[in-house]
Write a structure and sequence with these properties.
By secondary structure, this protein is an alpha+beta fold. The chain folds into 2 domains: about 80 residues, Glutaredoxin, CATH 3.40.30; about 110 residues, Glutathione S-transferase Yfyf (Class Pi), Chain A, domain 2 (Up-down Bundle), CATH 1.20.1050.10. The chain has 8 helices and 4 strands; from the N terminus they run E-H-E-H-E-E-H-H-H-H-H-H. A 4-stranded mixed beta sheet has the order 2-1-3-4, covered by helices on one side. Helix 1 packs parallel to helix 3, helix 1 packs across helix 6 and helix 4 runs antiparallel to helix 5. The radius of gyration is 17 Å and the shape is globular. It starts with a strand and ends in a 10-residue tail after the last helix.
Amino acid sequence: MLHLYSDSSPNGFKATIALEELSLPYQLHHVRIDEGDHRQPGFLALNPHGRIPVLTDSETGVVLFESAAILLYLADKTGKLLPTDPRARWEAIKWLQFHASSVGPMLGQRVHFSLFADPPIPSATERYQRLTEEAFTVLDQALADRPYFAGVDYSIADIAHFAWLHIARIIHFDFSHYRCLSAWFERVADRPAVRKGTTLPAPATSA
């Protein structure tokens, strides 16, 4: 049995979307970050860094944190959400890595400095707004000639990027002027598993 420990956040939504897309049975454990659940000994035994999501697989004994690793594990376990064609497969992995190393962290910093920094630090706010806009430009250009990041196949790369852009949309980080990125976002948002995955364990109302 798969067990997912998560909260309503972009990184958590990556895992719930993937599990719903794959129709895998799993047990969801709500780690309420606002209440400090992520700092409890039981959770820290699973992830010493105290971050969600965490996935455990009782069949294999695998325990994973970091959302990109979880996405790769689920794709490998099922043979789905990664293209079989080598070139397309590596496109998916490349864009997943770009998300994990660039887009997700930069959006996270933009959220912090735009909404939560006290006192505000205008130079940091401007820096991360500029960096995320540059990343949006890269994503928009990548989608100019393809429906998904890997090409014709929807993959874990799309799930990773969507989860953070879903939050960006909720908190009014406008990317509507990126035509290809916006069209891709609506295409992915219309998937039933994506609609369900972004409500687990609860819909996000803020970052």
